[in-house]
Amino acid sequence: MEQQQISAYLLKSGIRPLQKRVKIMSYLVSKRNHPTVDMIYSDLIHEINGLSKTTIYNVLNLFVQSGVTLALNIEGNEVRYDADTSTHGHFKCKICSGVIDFRIRKEELPNPMLEGFRIDEHHYYLKGVCSFCVNKIEA
Amino acid sequence: MEQQQISAYLLKSGIRPLQKRVKIMSYLVSKRNHPTVDMIYSDLIHEINGLSKTTIYNVLNLFVQSGVTLALNIEGNEVRYDADTSTHGHFKCKICSGVIDFRIRKEELPNPMLEGFRIDEHHYYLKGVCSFCVNKIEA
DNA sequence: AATGTAAATTGAAATGATTACAAAAATAAG
DNA sequence: CTTATTTTTGTAATCATTTCAATTTACATT
Predict the structure, then answer these.
(1) How far apart are CA B55 and CA A21, in angstroms?
(2) Fewer Cβ within 10 Å of end Cβ, chain B: N or C?
(3) How far apart are CA B30 and CA B79, in angstroms?
(4) Which of A127, A114, A69 shows the shortest CA–CA distance to B117?
């Protein structure tokens, strides 16, 4: 996606499309790698002069609050970020630590009987070993 | 559940039923409150003389590795523990921070097309506002 | 009951992720 | 161009968790 489109998208979501915000969203959208803050930092530090890790935290927190990014809590010691806010599930491989998306339709997710509750977010994730690492183990 | 039963259960799961382990498992099973380590500590420190927080971490890690306890990663900054290892979902209230269970059958959970993957764990959780807090907000 | 050995527990220090905060820089408005 | 507001930065603080060596406990064998 073009920086132009990213800017327009942020603006539409009530976020001023400042340089670093656009770059970070652009990173999330193009890589789709469910990165941690550290991954974003080490990838963007070369590209953005004088980028601070605090800024990444600030920007991501803003994104999450504004609803343009999901914070994924799959492992206790790391938060991963995903700019795809549509309904989908995640799989995390115990071996290579990679996180991949899988499509599910909202109607497929069970709707528990929670009388009077307001449900804002659905999270569905699986853990195991991805096909690539399964082969490595068997070999 | 009686301490006797807890001990037998731990033994069957390959865990030596030492005093503190039995007390911690007993706590998890009877309270069913999805506690954090801190919650367990502040509740049991009165009951168990000279209990250390490190011990709670040790015991819980053992429980999780042995498969008798689930580690729930719903919020990025806290891990909660659940001795109910059967298939079920969790709801976390944004207001009161409480976590409650809801029943779902394994067959209800969508089975994504992940050719060649080995899937070990399914996690399904919802976030929102519980009925009690919904009323508080409206009032 | 006493002894020895292995396992568990402890507390202090280390680690690692995240947040708080005040100063500096960038942005927008007049 | 000047000023006011917002954003970014870097350091220090915080908080959960792990590491590790020393102490204690559990348990099998005398």
Answers:
(1) 43
(2) C
(3) 19
(4) A127
Predicted confidence (pLDDT) per residue in B55-92, tens digit: 999 999 999 999 999 999 999 889 999 999 999 999 99
**B52 and B120 in a common domain:** no
Q: Say whether both B40 and B72 belong to one domain.
A: yes
Same domain, B77 and B52: yes
Residue B18: which domain range? 3-82
The amino acid present at B121, given as its one-letter code, is: E
For residue A131, give Cα distances in angstroms to A95, A96, A134, A135, B103: 11, 11, 5, 6, 30
Whether B106 contacts chain A with CB within 8 A? no
Element (H, E) at A65: helix A53-66
User: How far does B10 lie from chain A, in Å, by closest CA?
Assistant: 24
Residues of A in contact with B123 (CB under 8 A): 74, 123-127
